[in-house]
C-alpha cells in the first residue's frame, strides 16, 4: 500500500492559454482540486510555496480553507522556505490550520530552492548572523519551530496581565498536539537526509537532488532514503518516520492526454547545475498505463518510500488534474500494489 497525494506548484499566468490566470483563480482551484482529490480517494493535497513569483506564496489561508472543506485528506506543503519564516508566528499559524483540519496537517519545510530575487529573505526582515549563512539561518529557524511546537512554556508571564495566566512559563497558543511529529524536511542530498533523521523530522525528497554520482536518479534517491533510515535508527527515535518522493506520472489514456504529454514519453534523467553545483533531475513518467507500470516497477526510490506525491500541471485546470489523478489510481496504482 502506498500513501498517494498530489503536489501543486500553484502557477498562474495571465496568458489566454492558462487555466489559472490570476492568484485568485489558482487559490480557488487549489481548494477545489483538494476537494475533488478527496472524493477520488487520494490521500494528500500538498502545495509548493514560492515568494516573489506568480505561484502560491502564503500557505496558511489555503491550508485552513482546505481543512475546513475536507474531512479525510492530508494537507501539506512541499516546501516552506525557512529562510523567510518567523518561527513563532509560523507555529501559531500552523497550529491554527492543523486544529481546523483536526490534525491532518503535514508540513514540509527546507532551506529553500533558488529564488526569484537576490536574498529575498532580507525583505522579510531576516538576516543571517555574522559568520553564518542563509542555509544555517533556515536550520536555526527550524530548530525554534520544532521546539515551540512541543507546547512547553518558555515565556515569562506579565505580573499584571490583561487576563489571568496559568502558573509557570507560558507556551504559544494555540497548541496542536502531534504536529511536531508531522514536520518534514525537504532534503536535496544524502548528507542532508541524515541530518533530517537526527532532528527527528520526516523526509521529503523531490524530483531532483543537488548532487550527482553518475548513477540513475532513482538509485541515488534510494540510497538517500536508506541512509536516512539508518540515521534515524542510530538516533534512537521512538516512532516510525515517513518518507515521501515526488514524481511526474502522466498516464496516456485518451486523446487529450496524448495531445498534452505524448511527446514526454520515453523521458530520461537530466543532469544540470543548481546553485552553482551539479544536480540530477528525475525523469517524467509519461506513457500508456502498462508502460508506466513496467517503468515504475524499476524505480527503487518509489518502492522505498511510503508516500508518493504526484506533481500536477495545475494550469490545465481542476477537471483535467482530477482526471490525471483518477488515471493513476485506476490504471497504475493497483498493478503496482499501491492500492
From TrEMBL:
Pfam families named in the record: Bac_luciferase
Gene3D superfamilies: Luciferase-like domain (3.20.20.30)
Spans traversing the lipid bilayer: none
Entries under InterPro entries matching the protein: Bact_Lucif_Oxidored (IPR050766), Luciferase-like_dom (IPR011251), Luciferase-like_sf (IPR036661)
Luciferase-like domain location: 9-257
PANTHER family registered for this protein in UniProt: BLL6902 PROTEIN, LUCIFERASE-LIKE MONOOXYGENASE
Protein name according to UniProt: Alkanesulfonate monooxygenase SsuD/methylene tetrahydromethanopterin reductase-like flavin-dependent oxidoreductase (Luciferase family)
Organism this protein belongs to: Microlunatus capsulatus
Amino acid at each position: 500500500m502506498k500513501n498517494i497525494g498530489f503536489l501543486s506548484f500553484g502557477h498562474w499566468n495571465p496568458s489566454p492559454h492558462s487555466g489559472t490566470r490570476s492568484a485568485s483563480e489558482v487559490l480557488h482551484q487549489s481548494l477545489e482540486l483538494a476537494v475533488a482529490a478527496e472524493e477520488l480517494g487520494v490521500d494528500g493535497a500538498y502545495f509548493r510555496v514560492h515568494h516573489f513569483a506568480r505561484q502560491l506564496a502564503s500557505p496558511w489561508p489555503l491550508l485552513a480553507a482546505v481543512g475546513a472543506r475536507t474531512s479525510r485528506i492530508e494537507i501539506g506543503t512541499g516546501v516552506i522556505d525557512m529562510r523567510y519564516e518567523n518561527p513563532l508566528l509560523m507555529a501559531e499559524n500552523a497550529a491554527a490550520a492543523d486544529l481546523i483540519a483536526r490534525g491532518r496537517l503535514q508540513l514540509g519545510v527546507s532551506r529553500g530552492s533558488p529564488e526569484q530575487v537576490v536574498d529575498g529573505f532580507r525583505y522579510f526582515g531576516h538576516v543571517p548572523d555574522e559568520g553564518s549563512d542563509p542555509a544555517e539561518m533556515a536550520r536555526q529557524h527550524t530548530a525554534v519551530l520544532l521546539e515551540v511546537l512541543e507546547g512547553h512554556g518558555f515565556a515569562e508571564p506579565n505580573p499584571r496581565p490583561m487576563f489571568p495566566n496559568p502558573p509557570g512559563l507560558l507556551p504559544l497558543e494555540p497548541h496542536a498536539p502531534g504536529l511536531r511529529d508531522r514536520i518534514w524536511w525537504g532534503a536535496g542530498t544524502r548528507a542532508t537526509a541524515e541530518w533530517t533523521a537526527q532532528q527527528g523530522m520526516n523526509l521529503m525528497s523531490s524530483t531532483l537532488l543537488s548532487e550527482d554520482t553518475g548513477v540513475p536518479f532513482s538509485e541515488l534517491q534510494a540510497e538517500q532514503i536508506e541512509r536516512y533510515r539508518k540515521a534515524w535508527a542510530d538516533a534512537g527515535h521512538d516512532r516510525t518516520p515517513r518518507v515521501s518522493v515526488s514524481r511526474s506520472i502522466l498516464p496516456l489514456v485518451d486523446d487529450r492526454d496524448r495531445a498534452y504529454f505524448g511527446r514526454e514519453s520515453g523521458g530520461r534523467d537530466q543532469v544540470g547545475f543548481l546553485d552553482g553545483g551539479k544536480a540530477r533531475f528525475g525523469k517524467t513518467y509519461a506513457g500508456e498505463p502498462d508502460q508506466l507500470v513496467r517503468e515504475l516497477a524499476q524505480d527503487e526510490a518509489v518502492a522505498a518510500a511510503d508516500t508518493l506525491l504526484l506533481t500536477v500541471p495545475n494550469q490545465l485546470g481542476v477537471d483535467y488534474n482530477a482526471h490525471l489523478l483518477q488515471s493513476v489510481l485506476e490504471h497504475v496504482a493497483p498493478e503496482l500494489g499501491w492500492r
